[in-house]
Design a protein that fits this description.
With about 350 residues, the chain is an alpha+beta fold. The chain has 15 helices and six strands.
Length: about 350
Amino acid sequence: MRFLFWGTLVILVIARIFLTKTDYPEGKKVRVTATVREEPIKYEYYQKIKLLGLNVYLPKFPEISYGDKIIVEGIVFDGKLEKAKLIRIEKRQGLLLNFRERIISFYRKSIPEPHASLLAGITLGSKGGIPEGFWQDLTKTGLAHVVVASGSNVSLVGGFLVGIFTLFFTRRLVLPLILVGIWLYAVLAGFEAPIIRAAIMGTIAFSAQQIGKLSSAWRALVLSALTMLIIKPEWVGDLGFILSFVATASLMLFQARIGKFLKAVPGILREGLSTSLAAQIGVTPILFVTFGQFNLLSPIANALVLWTVPLIMVISGLAGLFGLIFPGLARLILYLAYPLSSWFLFIVDLFSY
């Protein structure tokens, strides 16, 4: 029965992948109609959008946002839609999306860049407004995962929640508090598909560590991955999905063992460093093959800034909520995060060379 169950799931995944796969005619002009499922990355003169497996580059204006329904036309070449032209755009609607945009707008009006983008990225997973130069520095230092919603980001946040909650609560209460923290972060970050995926995998990983049943956790991890691929078969080649799965598996395998070797490291840094090292054991080869670069000092940079993440999230989150009603008071609260973001930016500058 067990073999039949797992075999059926694998067959369903394979069938879904092949039946839903879109084969674009190479070198031919196509018209694509779809809803934007990932927040576009905005550069100085253009914006990059991933649409039904194609990378689409459009002029910076009109700005396209997560949730918009667009029609684009262009020539398919090597996974890209070249000479792309925006035919039509239907702006998104929805209370949650508007609420998120209002908070991000409040950040940008209240503090200068790249502080505003940093806070918006950490608090809400927003990467659309990050300046191009700052994004390149984040990539060089291996800190980009902290600013955008990813499996590593959820794992790092969860790791620091472990360090904080174990100081004040019993072991029985720690796991529920961690899970609440992870899913609150997912809600604040907009509940996009990558965030949901990361939250699910993070929940499995931390539950496994606290309960101590790694065998059951492995089954749950594989089951969640297969289920997600049945629902969204296009994730099979998605780098974010792969990194989320691998980072979670690495966390389950190595974090506790690494933590034992770091007993001399102060607690505020130990959780972040052990989590970062554990996650990067798995994701480093993938990142190196994909991007051709890896910063050997990345674990140190992560350990030096990750302690600021939960503090920035709490301060910026409260400021964002108050900003909708009491903007003056909210700015005073937001300014408390400025020293933390300044430290983060200092570390980015220090390790980006």
